[in-house]
Structures are given as C-alpha cells and as structure tokens.
Amino acid sequence: MSKPLIPAAKPIIGRDERRAVMRVMKSGMVAQGPEVAAFEQEFGAHFVQGRACVAVNSGTAGQHLGQLAAGVGPGDEVIVPSFTFAATGNSVALTGATPVFVDIEPDTFGLDPAAVEAAITPRTKGIMPVHLYGHPARMRELEAIATKYGVDIYEDAAQAHGASLDGRPVGTWGRFAMFSLYPTKNMTSGEGGMVACDSPELVRSVKLLRNQGMEKQYENEVVGFNARMTDIHAAIGRVQLTKVDRWTKQRQQNAAYLDARLKNVVTPTVAPGAVHVYHQYTIRVPHDRDGFAKALREEHGIGSGVYYPIPNHRLSSLAKFAPGLDLPETERAAAEVVSLPVHPSLTKKDLARIVKAVNKVAKAGS
Q: What pTM did the predictor assign?
C-alpha cells in the first residue's frame, strides 16, 4: 500500500476563519468596508513598523498599482530579476515601462547588486528586488545603488511576510512593497495583496487607483481600476494575522530539521543578519532535477515544486524585452532548484519521511 502524499504546500483555513467569514456575511457589509480598514492597520503594525498599507484584490494588482502611483510609465525602465514568478515582470510591462532583467546571486537567489548597477541607464526609474522564497534580498547594497543613481526601490515581498535584514523588516526599504495573500503564501486572505507605502501621497494614489479613481463616490479623479479587497477576504486575513508568527516559527523549525539531516543536495543559505521565513525550502539538485522530483513523488509520496523552470526573460510573453540576453546564474537555478515541503502542517513523521526519501533518491542519483 502506497503512503499518502505529503503535499508541497497546504493552506490552513480553519474554524476561526470560517467564523470570521460568517460574521461578515451576517453583517451585510461584504464589499470593501470596516474589515478592510482594520486589516490594513493591523497588517502595517505587524509587519512593516506601522507603514500605511492598502489592501487590494491580488499581489499582482498591488505591484501594478504601486508602480503607477510611484510614477512608473512609458519610457521608464525597472530592473527586475528574471528568476521569479512572471507577475514581477508583468507588473512592469503593464505600466507601459520596460522590465530590464538581470542576473541573480547563486546562494539566496536574489538580485545580484553588481548586475543591477551595470544595468542602470538614464531611463531607469526603479529597482524591484524579489525576496524570493522568503529570504530577504541584498537590500543594503541595493539601497546604496538606488541612492547613488537617484532611483526608487519597489519591493516584491510576495513570499516574505516577516522576513528581515539586520533587524529591518522587508517592506520598509522601498517606496512601496507588495505582499501577496494568495492561499499558498505564509498567510492568506483567500486571495489578495497588501501594498505598504512610504508616504501619505503614495497611499492616496494607490487607494484612488484601486477604486476606479475615486475617493468620493462619483468624483473620479484619475482613470483607475476595480482592485478592491472585500470585507470577506479581509476578515480571513485578520484571523491569519494572529497566527502567522507561530506558523513562521514552525516553518523555521522544520527548515532547521531538514538542514541538519539532508545529504547530497545543496540546502538553503541564510545570509548574515537575515531572517528567512521559508515560504519555500528550496534545494539545488545539480543532476537530473526533474527525475529527482518525479522519484520523490512516485516512489516515496513526497510532493515538491519547481519554482521557476522558465526564467521570465525566456517566456514568450516577456522575451521581447530581453533579446539575446544571457543570465547564467538564472539559467542554472532554473535547471537545479526544487522546493520541498516545509509548511507548518508537517508532523515529525512527515519530516522524517522527507529526509529519508530525499537522501535515498539523492544518493541514487549522485
């Protein structure tokens, strides 16, 4: 009899979240209302040292509206990694600006500061680091580059709720930061995103853009979108906000267990001064990564994920922005990475199964 599958990710939606949804449903106020306002305030206090936050209906919308509010548009360039989810490059392209893809560092998969500086041009409006897999990007160096050249930083913190560098939380380094609240993230609102802003002016602009350009009903000031979060989603997010620290601690403990026991694979690096929140526990498998992942699943019942097998600069949707571009570290990561289960629902038996399976498959393939 085969063992039950240990999934790569497992959203946690429990009784508290269901009660919160029912409370909102019974109130009759289900669109953007008091729950959203409370969630924005609580999220800002919890994660970004009180920065004002604006809730939207997805992380991608948050990236898009944040850039529009920051003045990004046609003729501008925004430097981004190619080794990330397509939403990073998409959000730049949707503003009419040009995403400029540069290479990553091999250890933490974040933007390589040297590559970023080499890509600066007179058209560069901003730099968008991604705190990939829950590990902070090299913000000290990127902040220095941004200051040197007078450009903005826009943080893609979709996977990094609670991550920090030298005690400074992600989401507090740039003009704005986007956090995703998709179901598989470290916390969820069912669907949604949060934009942490560095100024009242930016807050107001994002709020206008999410609500058809209106602050007052029927007094449209700009051409905007319908990117509002509902009170139903905010109520879920508020509950999850009370649990996410405990879940993050469990993720870190699970990662430590794997670090200490896995063999013949390259386990995740944590940079000095960094707090990794392990949205993903991503290892490198230098030889036949896809065969490795297939064997884990079919022979041992261990789920895994490959994030991201096709770099942004080679996607048919974004390749036009990067003709002939060579990003060797990005290509190597795309061919070698695989993410193992690290979510807080894992039991000790699950972790032991993961270690036994990974070591067996890795040894056979070494």
A: 0.96
The two tokens of residue 135 are 């590990």
Domain regions of the chain by residue span: 15-241, 244-365
Amino acid 139 reads M
Q: Which residues contact 355 (CB under 8 A, 6 or more apart)?
A: 257, 258, 261, 262
Is 15-241 a domain of CATH 3.30.70.3280? no
**Cα–Cα distance, 366 to 362 (Å, whole number):** 6
Residue 87, token pair as written in the block: 């939403």
Note the pLDDT tens digit of each residue in 60-111. 999 999 999 999 999 999 999 999 999 999 999 999 999 999 999 999 999 9
Beta strand residue intervals within the chain, DSSP E: 52-56, 77-81, 98-102, 124-127, 152-156, 164-165, 168-169, 176-180, 193-197, 274-275, 281-284, 337-340
pLDDT tens digits, one per residue of 10-49: 999 999 999 999 999 999 889 899 999 999 999 999 999 9
Q: Are 83 and 102 in contact (CB under 8 A)?
A: no
The verdict on domain 244-365 having CATH code 3.90.1150.10 is yes
